[in-house]
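From the shared-data thread, chain only:
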Amino acid sequence: MTTENDQLITVEAPCDIDEGFAFDVIVEGRVFQIEVPAGGLKLGETFQAPLPDIGGDPLPSQAPTGRWKDDLFDCFKHGFMHPVLWNAFCCTQVAMAQIMSRLQLNWLGIKASPEDAGNAFRTIIIVIIAYYTLTILWSYIFPGDWYLDDDTGEYEHIDDPLGIILLWALKAVFTAWSILSLMFTRRALREKYEIPEERCHGFEDLVCSTFCSPCAIAQMARHTADYGNYGAMCCTEDGVIENTPMDPIAVAMKVGPVKTVGADQNNQSLV
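Structure, as tokens:
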């Protein structure tokens, strides 16, 4: 039973869930368990429920809400040999994919179902392998021509014009995808943890993704994992050791006190 003093929250379902189950949600930096209402939920569907009386648990990542855990340029916080540092600077897109897995985003940095989000890491690995394989083999695909210079008597190579255009187009598409998907991922993280922009208001995510991508990725990785108590991994789907607790996907927002006295929590209506 609920009373007028109960706090009402709005919750968005992180996936399809049947009634009778419960899932964890983040409310103002604390983790609460909310029961699924009658009829179940579909991905992205919202409903209102009373906030449990129990105070809630801290986030597994130890991340604060409303601000970043540390600064954009605190890349060496965990030492020079930490996997996150090397991943962010040497395998930037791989580190980005790990953050996407933690936030349940697809390979474009957009909120997705658990199935699509689960494929994000593999999809990005395939994209990276395909891109670098093509760039390495490009000179064999478009070999160009050789001609004899009458003045020097030496053979000189002429690149295939079509090959050059297509190669630069491939690089432009890969670069644009890297920047935009990172921008969407950073924006999703800021929304989840209610972090306001601090610099370049309105364009901070784009600027950081374009000019400071390794530092931005390292900062997001540190924010979403407790590296002080759990180890990091270079090549796993989420970038942490096995059985590391992660923050819940769902985030709830307080909307005010419950208006109906004696309402049954199991009969919350969808909105």
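The two ends are 20 Å apart (CA to CA).
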